[in-house]
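job 3f2a | input accepted
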Amino acid sequence: MPRLLIAAPCQKAILDKDEGLISLIAIVNGAKVQFADDQPVADDAAIASNWAFLTTWRIEDGDESKRFEQRLEVISPSGKVRQTAQMDWQFGANSKNHNNVLRGNMTFVSEQGTQIIRISWRESGQEEWIRAFDYPFEIVHMAPGEEE
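job 3f2a | predicted structure (148 res):
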């Protein structure tokens, strides 16, 4: 069973495959948005924002030939799954660690409060997802002209 070593949301993640180096640009922890007082906020309100979520996994005995799936879910403060991204992966032949980067280009902001960015994994072909990490991401609604 792989072990999660790093889970980090950021604006940009750069993986140098030749050197095996990772660069994370601007770790993020939330978004502040302004809405007009007299207008209702749409249920699907979102802002354009490029983001990346890096995970680094450590191989454990018996994982060498297995394939895995990773899932990222963005869960609103009310518990609704707003975004999902998924990828397949496996450890390299002589590698003890494996890096994944999932990218997105928008952030849902209709609900103020703590969103959860959830990372789960499973062995390919299995039904059950195993929760590996929950990251709190704050959405703050501000009135027009309100200072941060």
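job 3f2a | The chain has one domain: 3-142.
job 3f2a | closed
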